[in-house]
Specification:
heterodimer; A: mainly beta; 4-stranded antiparallel beta sheet; 11 strands; about 0% helix; B: mainly beta
Chain lengths: ~120, ~110
């Protein structure tokens, strides 16, 4: 059974940093692109970033470029999102998803709240 | 960036009735179009990919169509478990973009 379990969310102040993690299981992690997608409370979905199997390609949405860094550890079947210089508008549930195009599995998400 | 526009924002339908949701892309995405279903408090689930291929676990009453810039999701006979929010998403180019969603509610 495919499982994606996010962790690392929480309440931070504007300008602070947070690192999200996603533990993947039930499939061959190295066979897949992986991505982060977010959803602000009561709002729609927004892609954040994706990463190729060997980390040779990474893509970011413009509003997050330079502040967020996606990475993975294939030995640990884990995906990460380092978020720096957080803004109030980054408040959202962050989902770890399998795939870089139309993700077929989604984690349950981790809530990031940015507020002073 | 490709802008995805869904209509209507809310669709009120009685159980057993047919529901048709629309999604328009600001430029052609070919058939690189997916639909997702999201219920309250849950993560989205992939419903349709390639504009018309149903994902595992969804019944045949769900069907997708279209290509280029105009797409539809049809639910032939709504069941109680189908009331949810549906999102379309293009994966033709980066950045991947979603529509704003259509909420299918009980009439």
């Amino acid at each position: 059974e495919v499982q994606l379990v996010e962790s690392g969310g929480g309440l931070v102040q504007p300008g602070e940093s947070l690192r999200l993690s996603c533990a993947a299981s039930g499939f061959t992690f190295t066979d897949y692109w992986m991505s982060w997608v977010r959803q602000a409370p009561g709002k729609g979905l927004e892609w954040v970033a994706n990463i190729k199997q060997d980390e040779s390609e990474k893509n970011y949405v413009d509003s997050m470029k330079g502040r967020f860094t996606i990475s993975r550890d294939n030995a640990k079947n884990s995906l990460y999102l380092q978020m720096n210089s957080l803004r109030v508008e980054d408040t959202a549930i962050y989902y770890c998803v399998r795939g870089g195009w139309c993700p077929d599995y989604w984690g349950q998400g981790t809530l990031v709240s940015v507020s002073s | 960036e490709i802008v995805m526009t869904q209509s209507p924002a809310t669709l009120s339908v009685s159980p057993g009735e047919r529901a048709t949701l629309s999604c328009r892309a600001s430029q052609s995405v070919g058939t690189s179009l997916a639909w997702y279903q999201q219920k309250p408090g849950q993560a989205p689930r992939l419903l349709i990919h390639g504009a018309s291929t149903r994902a595992t676990g969804f019944p045949a009453r769900f069907s997708g169509g279209g290509s280029g810039t105009e797409f539809t999701l049809t639910i032939s006979s709504l069941q109680s478990e189908d009331f949810a929010v549906y999102y379309c998403q293009q994966y033709s180019i980066w950045p991947r973009t979603f529509g704003q969603g259509t909420k299918v509610e009980v009439k």
